[in-house]
Amino acid sequence: MIVEIIDPYSHLLHSKLYSSEGRFTFTAHSPGDYRICLSSNSSAWFGGELLVGVLVFYSSPQRVHLDIGVGDHAQNYAEIASREKLSDLQLRVRQLLDQVEMISKDQSFQRVREEYFRDLSESTNRRVTWWSIAQFILLVIIGIWQMRHLRSFFQAKKLV
């Protein structure tokens, strides 16, 4: 199975050929929609149907199970502890540092969202203000035209 991850700017972040089982992780460095493409060079992958999280095919059934972890859940700390030979205290410090980093990234993301929506609100406010001014000017012009028209009408009828 070939796994490709494409960021919101259409840059390829990850592309790797996996065996029948595998695991991969990646960190999203910018906000937006990421695409995860799973493909195979096997002909058994064609002609099947797609179910939520599981791909089932009729010719030779294959399954793909996706567990998507976000933040803390994306890291396997037991595996990290055994691989790097960390004590319980060192592992807990690593977890806390990862949580602090995750909170910092979340705050940065919220800042970006707030900036985007503030710009959107200010743009909408500006448009509404100009539209209101245009309506006011149009109403004044129509009012002046109506008064002049009525005055000329009454003068033509010799009522004034």
Automatic annotation (TrEMBL):
Keywords: Membrane, Signal, Transmembrane, Transmembrane helix
Residue ranges of every copy of the GOLD domain listed in the record: 1-70
SMART domains: EMP24_GP25L
Residues that span the membrane, as ranges: 128-147
InterPro entries: Emp24-like, GOLD_dom
Signal peptide extent: none
GO cellular component terms, A-Z: membrane
Membrane topology, record value: Single-pass type I membrane protein
Family label: Belongs to the EMP24/GP25L family.
Protein name in the entry: GOLD domain-containing protein
